[in-house]
Every structure is written in structure tokens, then in C-alpha cells.
């Protein structure tokens, strides 16, 4: 999701300015409708939707004009593939509360990847997490809610903060158990908050300690989503396009 798609129009499809083009993606369980913006008379741009599974979907390019019926200009297929970011998000989601797996992830910290790689990892994994279908009972702290905060243990929040993953940390904060994870000490006595301070991650520390901390700028400029039942509407601020997603 959230990749730029360019649509090239044929000569006969280049029409007046009052014609509005949009794309309809039809999957097995979910349908997306995206608005487009015109780059020039022969090209359109929009954003690919974040889909709920890896499959090939049907895509229809539609044209709308006031007082006229909606026309299907062209049809094509579009494939959603499972990439490394999706695999990583699924792995981390299943790791919540699994101490053996969470301790295994700490080896990433020893390699200390370059800042550009961390930023790329943060953006892709957080985006994949947003599109995962997490179980209704999913919790940042894992399935065993009988554990008290006094028991030292590693959490997903420790993992995200240790690597400086700002977007992933923000996502986890919004999930059940996210705020509770902030006060949990690991076996070294560190909380996610103390880890951020120790490593000099000022923005991350601010995100964790301010009650009214705002969404990271890098996400705010990307898109904003409003959910209502089986529907959601996303506004991509960069391209100024909208996307409606509905259960099919």
C-alpha cells in the first residue's frame, strides 16, 4: 500500500477537464475506490491501496462526468505480493509475549544498521503492520494478560524503541497494551522510555512521555485515515487523493 501508481491514457481517452477518473480495485473480500490527479492530459497519478491479503485483483479505470453515466474506460489486473516488510510485520505480530522470539530479535541491535536503512525498515514494517488483519484479542504484551507489570520481560515496544523505529512505536502505542508496555522493565531493568533516553532518541522519548504527543510528521504528511464500521476513507496529503475501502 501507499505506492504511487501512474496511469497512461490512450489518445482517445484524453478528454475535457470536467471528466473525473478513478480506479476501482476489487479483491476477494475488500474493494477500494481511489480518486486520481491529472499530471498532464495523458497521465494520471494515484496511490495503491493497502490490501488485506496477497492476491491478484481486478482494476477498473472509470470516468465520471456530471450528467452522464459512469464509463469503464479500461480493465486490468493488479497483484499484491508478500514482501519482506509484510513477513517482518507478521513475524513481529506473532512474537508479542514470546520471550524466546523477542530475545532473538535483539541480535539486530548488535549490527546497528545505518540510519537510512532503519528509516526504510521503520516506514515499510509500520505500513505493513497497519494493513495486517490482527485478531480482535491481539495485544502488544501478548496473549497472557495474567502477567503483572512487575515481571521483567522483553516486549515489542522494547524492540521498536531499541532500533529507533519511530513510526512502529507510534503504531504500537495506539494498540491494546501499548501504553502498558512503557512501564515494563526487561531483564536489564530498562523500560522502553529509559531505552529511548539512554540512546539519545529525543523524538522517540518525546513521543513516549508526552500525553498529547502528535503523530510523527513523516506519517502525518503521508496519509490520514478515518474508519467507520466496514468502511474507511484515507486522504493522501502528498498527492491530495482519496481512497474509500469497503468490505466486499
Automatic annotation (TrEMBL):
Question: Which biological process annotations from GO are given for this protein?
Answer: adrenergic receptor signaling pathway; positive regulation of canonical NF-kappaB signal transduction; regulation of Rho protein signal transduction
Which InterPro entries does this chain map to?
A: Ankyrin_rpt-contain_sf (IPR036770), Rho_GEF (IPR051632)
Q: Name one GO cellular component term.
A: membrane
- Sample GO molecular function, one term: MAP-kinase scaffold activity
Identify this protein by name.
AKP13 protein
- This protein's species is Ardeotis kori
Q: Which gene encodes it?
A: Akap13_1
